[in-house]
Specification:
Keywords: Membrane, Transmembrane, Transmembrane helix
Number of helices: 4
Number of domains: 1
Shape: flat
Strand order of the largest sheet: 1-2
Distance between the termini: 74 Å
Low-confidence stretches: none
Protein name: DUF485 domain-containing protein
Radius of gyration: 26 Å
Helix content: 55-70%
Strand content: under 5%
Structural class: mainly alpha
Order of helices and strands: HHEEHH
Largest sheet: 2 strands, antiparallel
């Protein structure tokens, strides 16, 4: 004789499920033909700019270790007892990311303003 299966759940789970809000999708705005064309042009321009920024980012991130391997003398130079090569790999990418992000944002906003 088989016994009936029972799902065992935590009281916390039941409480979480009871508090869950209904998830509704927000309506998609309908654009007129002129606005839709403008939106597509802006999207394409910003996508091209983003690809350029990503290529620069990957070039930097992949080129930095390559450059450091070609210049092993940088491993001997120390700043505050830390090799410059380590500082270049551990610290240098972050300011570069910030500069690249700000550059990309300005270009994207400029593309919107131009249209």
């Amino acid at each position: 004789m088989r016994t009936k299966r029972v799902a065992v759940t935590s009281p916390q789970t039941r409480l979480a499920h009871s508090r869950r809000r209904a998830r509704t999708r927000s309506p998609v705005a309908k654009l007129e033909a002129a606005d839709a064309g403008r939106a597509v042009r802006i999207y394409r321009a910003q996508r091209r700019m983003a690809v350029t920024a990503l290529v620069l980012l990957f070039t930097f991130l992949l080129g930095l270790p390559l450059l450091l391997s070609l210049l092993p003398a940088l491993g001997e130079v120390r700043v505050f007892t830390i090799p410059v090569s380590w500082l270049a790999v551990a610290v240098l990418p972050y300011p570069v990311l910030v500069v690249l992000a700000r550059w990309q944002l300005r270009r994207a906003e400029h593309a919107e303003d131009r249209e």
